[in-house]
Amino acid sequence: MSRSRDAVHEILRQSAAFRSAQDIFTEMRADGSKIGLTTIYRALQALNDDGRVDVLRTDDGEAVYRACATSAHHHHLVCRGCGLTVEVDGPDVEVWAERVGAEHGFTAITHTVEVFGTCAACAKG
Amino acid sequence: MSRSRDAVHEILRQSAAFRSAQDIFTEMRADGSKIGLTTIYRALQALNDDGRVDVLRTDDGEAVYRACATSAHHHHLVCRGCGLTVEVDGPDVEVWAERVGAEHGFTAITHTVEVFGTCAACAKG
DNA sequence: AACCGTTTTGACAATCATTTTCATTTTCTG
DNA sequence: CAGAAAATGAAAATGATTGTCAAAACGGTT
Ligand SMILES: [Zn+2]
Ligand SMILES: [Zn+2]
Ligand SMILES: [Zn+2]
Ligand SMILES: [Zn+2]
Q1: Interchain contact A21–B (C-beta under 8 A)
Q2: Which of B85, B43, B92, B90 lies closest to B68 in space, CA to CA?
Q3: Which residues neighbour A14 within 8 Å (Cβ) at sequence distance 6 or greater?
């Protein structure tokens, strides 16, 4: 696994937004690549397994991926208009999640936190 | 829209966990109902539109629904083992989300926050 | 360079959740 | 009760994702 995986990874590196498999496929084909959609799905899976890309689900259940700058735990602020994404962290949220879990006798706490909004550029029109 | 929608709503009321359409379908059929899967999807959609049920996506993209006690904004603490769900709120998280959005020039901020863990019962085995 | 076992790739079929379609049934209104 | 409008269910259509499998690309070895 390498040729294609690197190509997919590179596409993600050059995008500030979360991208779907179809999305990436369309772009790569437009750029002249002969890559197959199946290969893209496999590359995204591998990259995610290796912790090199983050994944989240859109409201309609589609998986979208992003190559974040850090591999450390963090969250995202995503523009609903253009998809522009900023990596953010929230120490308070981490603490809160642990505490609320513990308060109810839950262990092995994890959490998902995503913030959405309209970025300044999209707000202008 | 009424007969079936109420039946589906009732199933959800009696469950502490988030349930999928298939899930509900299987239970209702087992109980002798002649309801169709399509009708369940439509009922869940309608209930969600009316703000009577919450929806979230499992890791594999399946939509699951829950009739929460409150219709006010809140979040969930979900057991990965049995699905037991507790409604929680986090004023700090609300503030944090707004602030992090504003700091980056984003407007119309919304957010998704879910906490997962293993409940006390499931932890025992 | 030719050889050979391993990995990767891509076209295509298969799955699975969800949505559409459409004819039938139920509900509502007068 | 008649007729219109809303709801229902079976089956087909969609769309994303995964599985299959034979062909192509790799890597190391003579
Ligand atoms: Zn934007
Ligand atoms: Zn976190
Ligand atoms: Zn549990
Ligand atoms: Zn909140």
Answers
A1: no
A2: B85
A3: none
pLDDT per residue, tens digit, chain A (125 aa), is 578 999 999 999 999 999 999 999 999 999 999 999 999 999 999 999 999 999 999 999 999 999 999 999 999 999 999 999 999 999 999 999 999 999 999 999 999 999 999 999 999 87
User: Nearest CB to B106: which of A77, A97, A101?
Assistant: A77
Q: Which of A39, A38, A85, A78 is nearest to A59 (CA)?
A: A78
Strand D positions closer than 7 A to protein CB: 6-11, 16-20, 25-27
Residue A32, CB, less than 7 Å from strand C?
Answer: no
Mapping DSSP onto H, E and C, the string for chain A reads: CCHHHHHHHHHHHCCCECEEHHHHHHHHHHCCCCCCHHHHHHHHHHHHHCCCCEEEECCCCCEEEECCCCCCCCEEEEECCCCEEEEECCHHHHHHHHHHHHHCCCEEEEEEEEEEEECHHHHHC
Q: Residue A95: which of A113, A83, A81, A78 has the closest Cα?
A: A113
Q: What is the SS3 assignment for B52?
A: coil
**Single-letter residue type at B109:** I
